[in-house]
Amino acid sequence: MERKRSASKGWPETATKLKRTQDTTGKETDKRTAIVAKVLGIPLSLIPEETSTILQKGHDYLGNFGILKGTQESTADEWETEIGAIIIASVSKKEHVQKPLDITAQLQGPDQKGTNVNFTQEERRAVVSNLLCRINDDNHVHVQQAALAIYALVKYAAGEFDPETLKSISDSIDGAQRRFQLDSFLQVVDVQIMGIIESLVPIPDSAKGFEYPPFQKGLPFFPDHAYQVTIKLAKRQVSEKYAKNLLKLVHTVDATCRSINDKANTDHPPENGMMVDYADFNVGFQPTVWKHICKATGKAVFQPVDEAIELLKPDKNFALQSSRLAYSEGDMWFYLKAEERQYCQTMLEVIEDSHAPWFAHFDKPIKVTEAYKKNEGKVFGGMFLDGIGSAVDAMSLWREVIVSGIPSESGHSCEGATFAFTQFFKFDHEALDDLSQPSKEQMVGRDVYGEILPRLQERSHVKRARVISKKDGTNFEILRQALPYVPKSGVSGPQEKGLFFVGFGKSVARFFDILRNLYGRAEAAFMKDSMLTHVMGKFGCFFYCPSAAELDLQPLSHNELYPPIPFWMEFKSANPLLFYNHIQYLYTMTTNQYAGRDPPTKRVLYLMSTIFARWHSAWYHKFDVPRLPHMSTFLSKKEAHIMEQPIQIRKGYSYKKMLGEVLTSNSAPPGHTAYGTSENFDTYRLDPKELIVGVTERLSFGSGKEVMPYLKEEEMSLSWSLGLTEAGNMGHIVPDHEVVLTKGVSGILNCLKAKRRESGLTSDQITFLQAAEYAYEGVQLYLLRFARLALKTDHKLDPNSTLASDRKNLQDVAQRMLKLAEYDGEEDLTFHDAVQMIFSMHCCLHLIGQAVSVGRLDQLLIGYYQRDIEKKRITPERAQEIIDCFFMKFDEHVLLNRYNIPYGHATYGSTAVTGRGGPFPTGDSLNQWIQQVTVGGYTRDGAEGYNDITLMCLKACRRLPLNAPCVSLRLTTNPPPLVVEEAAKAILSGGAHPILYNDDKMVEGLHEVLCSSYDKLNLPRPPNLLEYARDYSCDGCYEPMFTGASEFKFAYINLLKAVMYALNAGGDYQAAGPLHLAGDASSWRTPLAKDIRTFDQFQDIFVAHLQLLVENLFGTILTAYGNPWKICPSPMLSCLLANCLESATDLTNGGSRFHIMAPMYVGFANAVNSLYNVKKMVFDDVNNVATLETLTMALINNWGHSMSEPFFDTTGQGLIQTDISKQKFLELREYALQLPKFGTDTANDELNELAVWLAKEMDTVTHSVLYKGHLAEVYKELRAKFSTKKDHPFVFQVMTGSGSFESYVSLGTSSGATPDGRLSGQPIASDCSPQPFPQDKPVPHIPPEKQLDIIDTLKPYSSLSKFIPNGCEVDIRIPESFPQESLEEFILAFAKSETGSNLVTVTCADNWTYEQSYNRFQQFDLVRNRMGGWTNFFVAMFAEHQKQHQRRPLYRPHNE
Question: 14 Cβ partners below 8 Å, 6+ apart?
Fold first, then answer.
C-alpha cells in the first residue's frame, strides 16, 4: 500500500507504487446507477454509494434544459435509452439534428429499448473521442449539450455537482458561441474519480501517440527490498530444450509475481479501486548466453547484443582491467523487487526449486545478495540517497536507457531492451568517519537533503558520474537503483556494510565511458572520483535485459509508470497546471495525469526531455564559447581581397563566413577548432526527431556575444572613440519575416543584384547592397549546411537500431532546407516550410549578434495553415506539434546554474542602443535572448486578428515549461472566450506569460506618436499611419515596435536621480562624504533644501532636473546617430525593414521607415512615493515631521544606516550626537515606510493624482526638448542628412516609456537613499509596478485578506497609459491557488479598459515556493518569474533578484 510521508524529514518511507485501474468489489447498487455505469463504462467500485437521489436530481435538472426528457418516474429502460441516444446523437453525421431524442427511434433498432448502446470499451472510447472532436462545430448546439450531459451525469455520479454548478456550466455554452471546455473542470478532478474521467475522456490520439517501448515492467520499480540472484549456468551454448526451460523460469517468476500482487491486494483492499504492485522483477542474461538462447529458439539477435559481446572480451572489458571493480562470470540474473522481504523470498524459492526443469541447468550454488532501504535507502550512515539524478521519467528512459530498434524481418524488435551493470561496493567506514559532514557533501556533490551543490568540486561524485555527449551536449544518463547492503548478521548502528548497485543503460559502451570518468585509466591507482577512494567493488556483472516483447512478457501500458523517487515529488503545487521541477512535468505528462488533458505529443516530450538534459548538464559542467579569430584567418587566397574592401562589406562577408562555414561545422583539421560543436558554440546539430532545425546562440544577453572580428588594427582607434565594436549593433527590433516568406532568400538576393544594377547609386548604397548580398549568401549557405547535416545524420544512423520515422523525418528536413535555400517566392510554401523559414532566419540574425524578436507569428502563419488545411496537407494536431517544436528551439541553452556562467564576452562597444556602446550590467540578463512572439490584436485593416495559430501559441505557453519565447497577447475589447481561457491557463502554468496588451490603448497611443512626430515639424502625414500603429509587435522585452518598419533607440532616465538632485541642489548625494562632501555635482545648481519653501517649488525644481536628464540622453543619441554605419552596420537585418532595401540604405544609416526614440523613465513608483513623502513629511501643515534640510541629511546618511563625515563625527567625542541623529533618521524612515504607496493604496486620491502629474510631466518633457534650443538644430541637420526621399522625410517617433526591464537591481545600486524609505543601493520597483517591500526587512506574510484586489488595485493605472505609449508595464503576482475563472474575469476587465494600464504581466508563484527555491535548485528548477522585461527561472537568478520578487505584493481575486 502507499506509505505516509515522514513528518520529521519530509521523506516518504517508500515511493508511491504503480497503480492500475481495476474493479475490485462487487458491491450492490441501484439499477439506475448500474445503467449509467453500463452505458458509460464506469467501474461500479468508483461510483459512491447512495447516489441514486443525486443522480435522479441531475436527470431532472438536465431535463429542464431540454437535454433529457425524464421524470422522477423514469424507468431504467428509459434512462438507458436516453443516455444512449445522447451518445449516438453526438456522433451522428446528420446535419439536421435538432434534439438528441429526435433520432432515437431510427438509431435504436426495432425493440425500442436502447440495445444499440451496449458498446464495447473500444467503441465507447471512439464514440466519446469523436464527440469531443466535434464539440467545436458551431452548427451543432445539441452536440455540445450532449457532451455537457454526459460529463454532468458522471460528475453527478461522483457527487460533485450541485444544481447551481450545473446551471453555470450550461449557461457557459451560450448558444453556439462558446465551446464547452472540459479542460477547466478536469483540472480539479479528485483522484477518486480519475477512473471515471479516464473512461469518459480518453487522451486524444494525437497526444496519446505515446506508448512506452516494451521494456520489462519492473524496470522503473525502485523497491524497499531487493534480492540480486546471480546464476552460473552449466554451459552457455544451450540447446533448444535448455533455452526454453530458462525462458519458462522467467514466465514462472512473472506468474509468481502477479500472484503475490493479486493476493496482497485481496488481503489489503486498495483504495479507490487502484491496484498496488507489491512485487516485480527484472531478468538479464550474459550477452553471449542470450545470443545462444536466441539461436536455439529462433529469435532474432540484434546488433546491440553483438556489440556488447565484443566489448566484454577480456582485452576490452574495463571492469576486468580495473583494480577497484569486480567482474564475476554470471550467466543469468534476476533482480527481485518488493515492498516486503517475504515477497522477494517467495520469488527466490521459485528460482531455487530443485524439482523444476530449469534447475538442472544451473551450475550451483546460486549467488543471492540481499539489500533493503535501511535509513530510507540512504548510505554513509543514513546521509545520502542514491539515484536522485537518475533517468526516472519515461522520456529519459526511452532516450537514455532503452535500446532503440526497428523490427527484424521476423517482426521482432529489440526496442525496450537495456543493459544492466551490477556491483556490490564495500565501504571503508573507518576512513569515511574521519570526514566531516561538509567534506562528505563536497565528496558526493549533494547535501544530506539530496539537493545538488551548485559549485561542485572537480572530483565530486555527481560531477564525475556525468559524461557529456559530444553530439548534443547532454549528459549520459542511466537508471540507478542502489540500496544499502546489510548482511544477514546485521550491522550495529546506522551504518550499512556497502551498496548494492544496479544501473540500467543504453549500452555497455556507455557504462565504460562513465566508469572511465569515475576511475580514470584502468591501470591507474589514482581515482578521478574522490568518493571511490573509500569504496571497493567486490563482485558484479554486465547483463543484457531483453525487452518484454523478446521475453513474451506483458509490458507497461501507456498510463502505467512507477512514480519517481520522492525527492522529485516531495513538493507539488496545489495548482495542477504548474510544475515545480522537470521530473514532475515529464512524469505527469507521460502517464496521462496532466490536468489539462491534452499533453504534448510523444515527439515533443522526447525533445523536451532532451532540452531538460541539456539544461542540467550545466550543473556539472561549465559551458563556454571560444573567441572567434579575426576574419582574415578564415579567408582563402581567393578571398584575401575582402580585407581591402570597406568596413561595411567586410561586415557582410563576416556574416557569410560565420553562417556558411564557421558556426555550421562540427569537424576541423588537427590544430583547428570545430566551432559549431556542443563543446564550443553548439550551433550545428540536429536530432532525428526534430521537426524544426537550427540552433540559436549559446550566450545569453547577460554573457555578452561573440561575432567575427573584421576591423583592421588601424581602425580600432576610430571604433574606440565612437564607443563601438564589431558587436555594437544589437538588433532589439522586430523584422518583417513576411519579406523572406514571400520572396525567399533567393528572391532577396535577386532583388539586391537587380538594385545594384541601377544607375545613380551613391557609394554608400553600392556598399550596402554588396554587404547585404554577402549576408544573404550566408543565409543560403546556412540552409544548405543543415540540409547536408540532415543527410549526413541519416547516413550515419544504424538501420538496425533506428526508427523508420526518424529516417523519414531526416530526409524531409533535408528536402525542406534545400527547398528553402532555393526558394525565390515562386514555389508554394507549406505551413511547415514557413515555420522553418522563420526560425532559420531568426537563428541567422541571432548568430551574427542581431538579437531580434519574431513578430506577429499568428498573422505570419495563418495563410499557410489555412491553405494546408484546405488541401488536406496538415491536421490541426500536426500544426500544434510543429508550433511546439518551434517554441522549444528558442530555449535550448538555458543556464540554471548561475555559478557556471560564461563571462568575458561583453565588450565596451556592445549594446549600442543609443548609438554608443558601454558597460552593461550583464548579471541582470542571464537567460535573456530577446525573443518574443506577438499574437492576437487588430490586423492592419482593423479586424480582429485572433486565429487558430493564436490558440496554438497560447497552448504551447501552457504545456511547455520554457522561458523563451515570451508570448505577448494583444487583447481587443471583446477577445474570444477561448483566447481568454487559454491565456488564463497559460499564466497559471507558471511561465509568467502571455503578457497582456490593451490593444485599444496601445494602438491609440502609437497612432498619436506617429501623427505628432510629423505635426510638430509641420510635415504632411504619410498615408497608412493607423495601419502601422495597428500592426505593432513586441520587441525583446515589451516595447511596441512598428513591425518590420522601425529602428529603436532608447536609454534609461532614472527618476530617482531627479529627486536626489532636487533635494541636494543638483548634487548626487550617493557620493557624499569625505571625498565629494555634499555629493557629486551632476545637474543644474538649484536652491538648497533650506531655501525651498513650498511643494510646488520642489516640483518645479524636480522637473528642471528631469529635463536636463532627457536633454543629455537625446543629445547622446543625436550626436551619435549614424556612427554604427561606420563600424557595425546591419545589412542582413536591414533587408527585413521597410524602406531599407528600396532605398539601398542600411538601418544604421537612417534607412528604416520609422525611427523610434524612447526615454525609459525608471523608478516610477519610487519617484511617486518619494514626491508624496516629501509633500507629507515636510510641507504638510498638519502632519509634517521634518524640515526638507533634515530629510535631505537623513538621505545623505542613508536613513541613519551609514552616518558619514563631514556631516557627523564618527570617531571622536561627537559620537553621542551622532547616535541621537542616527536614531532620528531611523525613526523618520519608519514613518516614511508607513505612508501610503502608489499601486497598493489605491483609495488615496492625492497619491494617484501625483502619479498622473508625474506621468504627464514625463511625456511633456519627452516631446519638448527635441524641438527647442541646440537639440532642435542638431535634429534639423540630421533630417537634412538622412531623409532618403522627398516623400520620406527623416523623422524621430519620440515616445515615453517606463521600462526598467531586468535592471531594477543595477539601477538601484547607482541610486542613493530616497524619501520613499528605500535605502541607498537597494533595487527600485520594476517598470511602473508597485514598490516592493524593502530588502532589509523580513519577507512579509501576506494573508489573503491583505492581498490586493486584482481589478480595483490596478484601476489608477488606467489614467497613466496615454502618457506612456511605449508601454506602461505593471508586473503583478498572484498566488498559485488563484482561481482560473477569476483570472479570466481580470483579463476581460483589462481588455475592456475597466482596469490596468496598456500593459500588464502576471507571475503565478507563492512566497513559500520562492523560499524553497533558494536552496532546492533541482526540486524547483521550473519555477519562473517575470523579470520586468522577460521571464527567468527563479533558481538561475542572483539573490538580489530573488529577494526582490519575494517582496512584491500579492493580488487576490476581485471582490474576495
Answer: 3, 224, 339, 373
Instruction: Look at residues 78, 799, 13 and name the one whose alpha carbon lies nearest to residue 406.
Output: 799
Query: Going by C-beta distance under 8 Å and a sequence separation of 6 or more, which residues neighbour residue 980?
Result: 1384, 1387, 1388, 1391
Please, what sign has the CA dihedral across residues 672, 676, 680, 685?
negative
> Using CA atoms, how far apart are residues 381 and 448, in angstroms rounded to an integer?
11
| CB contact set of 1274 (below 8 Å; sequence gap of 6+) | 1115, 1118, 1119
- What residue type is assigned to position 1425 of the chain? N
71, pLDDT greater than 70: no
State residue 34's pLDDT score: 55
d(Cα 574, Cα 1252) in Å, to the nearest integer?
Answer: 39
Q: Note the pLDDT tens digit of each residue in 901-935.
A: 888 888 887 888 899 886 666 778 888 888 999 99
What is the enclosing helix (H) or strand (E) of 280? strand 279-285
What residues are paired with 1403 via a beta bridge?
Answer: 1373
Residue 1191 has pLDDT above 60, yes or no: yes
Residue 425 DSSP symbol: E
Measure the CA–CA gap between 793 and 578, rounded to whole angstroms. Answer: 36
Q: Considering the chain, what is the average pLDDT of its residues?
A: 84
**Distance (Å, whole) CA 340 – CA 394:** 26
Is the pLDDT assigned to residue 29 strictly greater than 50? no
Residue 1276: Cβ-neighbour burial (10 angstroms; 0-12, 13-18, 19+): exposed
Start-end of H helices in 993-1122: 999-1015, 1025-1030, 1055-1063, 1095-1120
Q: How buried is residue 1106: exposed, middle or buried, by Cβ count under 10 Å (0-12/13-18/19+)?
A: buried
Residue with cell 495559430: 949
pTM of the model: 0.87
DSSP 629: P
Cβ–Cβ under 8 Å, residues 237 and 247: no
Name residue 480's beta-bridge partners: 503
Whether 1341 has a pLDDT exceeding 70, the answer reads yes
Distance CA 1089, CA 1076 (A): 18
What is the distance in angstroms between the CA of the first residue and the CA of the last residue of the chain?
40
Query: Which residues touch 136 (CB under 8 Å, ≥6 apart)?
Result: 179
Helices (H), 1017-1084: 1025-1030, 1055-1063
> Which residues, 6 or more positions from 1374, have their beta carbon under 8 angstroms from its beta carbon?
987, 1350, 1383, 1402, 1403, 1404, 1450, 1451, 1452
Residue 445's CB is within 10 A of a number of other CB atoms, namely 26
CA–CA distance from 1257 to each of 583, 1105, 1111 (Å)?
A: 51, 12, 14
Q: What is the pLDDT of residue 412?
A: 59
Note the pLDDT of residue 155: 45
What helix, strand, coil percent values describe the chain, rounded to 5?
Answer: 45, 10, 45
> With b meaning 16 or more CB within 10 Å and e meaning fewer, what string describes 99-124?
ebbebbeebbeeeeebebbebeeeeb
Q: Strand pairing of 1369-1374 and 995-998? A: unpaired
Strand partners for 1300: none
pLDDT given for residue 523 in this prediction = 54
**Residue 318: what are its φ and ψ, rounded to 5°?**
-60, -40
Those residues with Cβ within 8 angstroms of residue 141's Cβ, 6 or more apart along the chain or in another chain: 173, 175, 176
1411 CB-contact burial (10 Å; exposed 0-12 / middle 13-18 / buried 19+): middle
pLDDT tier, 127 (very low <50, low <70, confident <90, very high otherwise): very low
Q: CB burial class (10 A; 0-12, 13-18, 19+) of residue 523?
A: exposed
What residue spans of 848-893 are helical by DSSP H?
Answer: 857-870, 876-889
In sequence order, which ranges of 797-940 are alpha helices (DSSP H)? 804-822, 831-847, 857-870, 876-889
Enumerate residues 6+ apart whose C-beta is below 8 A from 159.
48, 51, 54
**Which residues are bridge partners to 1431 per DSSP?**
1426
